[in-house]
Each structure stands twice: as structure tokens, then as C-alpha cells.
Amino acid sequence: MNFTGKTALVTGSGSGIGKSIALMFAQAGANVAINDVSQKDADSTAQEIESLGREAISIFANVAVQEEVREMFESVKSTFGQIDILVNNAGITRDGFLMKMTEDQWDQVIDVNLKGVFNCCKFAARMMSERQYGKIINIASASAQMGNIEQSNYAASKGGVISMTKTLAKELAQFHINVNAVSPGFIETPMTEKVPEKVKEYLIQQIPLGRAGKPEDVGNVVCFLASDQAAYVTGQVISCSGGMYVLVYKDFMVTDLTTANLSQEIMTKAKAFGAGVSTGLVNDIPSVAELVSRIASDAEKIIQERISGLSRRIEPGVHERRSLRREGNTCHLSVF
Ligand code: NAI
To answer: 38 and 162 share a domain?
Structure first.
């Protein structure tokens, strides 16, 4: 890729995936505007870009606030005179089980992840349309495509980003602006650092390519979409998840059946997993808490009967369907 003479703005590029994208653009010759709500992190990325011999500016702006975004685009215009590439990367999570999620958790995530993309696309499109050239790449998430426990706010925001990408691709094609989305799966960044180790191991087991993604894996796809090699690609969502998104079936709790106190083990693992439904299963809904202990006793029966590969339906009702399946020493509890 060669971005010599191009200007890119990457939101949330003080850390993680955004930082990686900004550096990759600079390595390929672009000048880059760095945006973040952490001035320190934005300054640090900008310095790294300058050390590569490119121009960079560091802009503190909250993408959720339209006035701050308007000022950010004015700074880009006065510094570089143009914008060729916008990457809407800034994003946050405020996870919680639906019945416990606060209005504030919902609003914050929708404001940054969805309204932030609207704000930035609006001002970028005005500048890009004047020059009849532009590339907009929105960072979505596999959570939007697959659904993810405790992420109703996050998945909804990213689902909105996907829908907006398709609509803007149609609206802005007349100005020769391409709009696409990249949908990462599980990528190692500060955002995912807080995921408990056991859950990380579990998630990696769900990835056909057998590893977590790196920020550069996402950066490579973004660079392609930002390049003129992708001139005939618009309105698309490119998954970058090591094959994780291909899977639609989800086991969310795994336990070792050799453990003596199986019932207790299932409860502990459910809590350790930290997933909303697990928490909900154990604490929130008495009938489901009871179900968990019944599942434990069913699991013991399964061992006794030495039935392998059994899928057993248990108490349909609160959720659509639950099943317990045994594979060797592993018991899978699934919710569909
Ligand atoms: P991160 O937390 O490492 O980086 C996000 C950056 O955005 C931070 O520097 C943060 O300060 C900045 N930011 C947050 N709110 C902002 C705001 N209102 N205005 C401007 N900047 C703001 O996260 P990561 O992992 O690098 O995520 C980047 C994007 O990729 C996000 O949109 C995220 O939802 C998405 N993503 C990440 C995945 C992962 O596994 N890490 C998976 C799927 C999607």
C-alpha cells in the first residue's frame, strides 16, 4: 500500500487497534490526525508518527459531542487542507446483563460507538465530497453479528454502525466516497485486557485459526479498504475474526465432570466465567438457579449412563432451549 500525499484521521488512536492503524498508515506514507479522549495517549501516537518522518496532529475530542467533532475537522482542514481517509475506531464497552444494565451504561455506549460514527461521518463527508474522493472505514464488531452475552448495548451500537455503513455507501457513492466496515472478533488490546484469563482461553478455543487477533490484523484489512485497490468495494462488512464469526453455535459454560462436587463446580465456573447469563443464571432468576443444580444432577446421570454426545433438553421456558452435552470429561451447557 502507498498512502503518500494522503491524510487520514483515526478516532480513538491513542491506543489499541486505532494506534496500530494510525502507525500503519504513516509507515505507508500518510500524514495522520490522531484523535482520542486521552491527550497523553494521542500525543504519544503522534510523536511516534513524527519519528517516522510524517506529519501528525493530536486532537483531544470526544466523538460523541458534535461540537467537539466539528472543531476537530476544522483543525484537520487548517493543518492538512484535506481529508482522504476517516477511520471510525473510537469505541467503548460498558457490559452488563440486560436486567441490571443502567440507562447510563446504555447511553454512553450508544453515544460513543454509534452517534460518534454519525458525527465524524457527517463532517468527513462534507470535506470529502468537495474533492470527490474519500474512504470511510467503520470499526464494527463480531458481537453485532453473533450477539454477545452482557453486550446488548455494545452489540446494538455496532449493529447500528453496520447498518449506517450500508446506507452511507449508497448515499455517498455519488461523491466517490467508499464506505465499508471491518468487524473484528477477539483482538488483544487494552479493551480486552480486563477479560478474565479463563474466559480468554475459552474464547480462543472458539476461534478456528486458534489465536486471538492482533491490532495489526485489523490494520491490514483497514489499509486495504483505504487503498485504491479497494476502489470497487463499498457498503461491505469484512469480518476479521480468525473465523470466529463463522460459528453460530455457542457453548458458554464448560466444566470438568471428574470434579467431586459437580453442582458446586458448575456454580463456581459460572461465576468465574463472568458472563451475564451465567451471573443471571446463578443470582437473578430463582427458577434458573434451581435449573443449574438440576443440570448438575443430570450431568452425574449422564456419566453413570456413559452416554457420550448426548444432547438433552432441560426445562424449556425462561430461555428458548438449554441442553447439556458430554464430550469425554467435559460437560457443555448451552443456551440457544
Ligand atoms: P481500546 O480501548 O484499546 O482503544 C479505544 C480508544 O478509543 C482508546 O484510546 C480510548 O481512549 C478511545 N476513546 C474512547 N472513547 C472515546 C471518545 N468518546 N472519543 C474519542 N476517543 C475515544 O479499544 P480497542 O480494542 O483498540 O478497540 C478499538 C475499536 O475496535 C473499538 O471500536 C472496539 O469496539 C472495536 N473492537 C475491538 C475488539 C477487540 O477485541 N479489542 C473486537 C471488536 C471490535
So the answer is: yes
164 & 304 share domain: no
- For residue 269, what are the domain limits? 250-335
The best mutation among 11, 15, 17 to test binding of ligand 1, ranked by most ligand atoms within 8 Å of the C-beta, falls on 17
Count CA atoms closer than 13 A to 82's CA, side-chain side.
15
- Contact status, residue 224 vs residue 255, Cβ threshold 8 Å: no
Predicted local distance difference test score (pLDDT) of residue 245: 86
Q: Which atom number of ligand 1 is nearest to the Cα of residue 192?
A: 41
Instruction: Tell me the percentage of the chain whose pLDDT exceeds 70.
Output: 73
Atom of ligand 1 at shortest range from CA of 212: 40
Catalytic residue status for 249: no
Q: 112: Cβ–Cβ under 8 A, 6 or more apart, which residues?
A: 62, 63, 64, 90, 91, 92, 157
Residue where a domain stops, chosen among 213, 240, 267: 240
Whether 104 and 231 share a structural domain: yes
Is residue 106 situated within a structural domain?
yes
**Active-site position among 154, 232, 245, 249:** 154
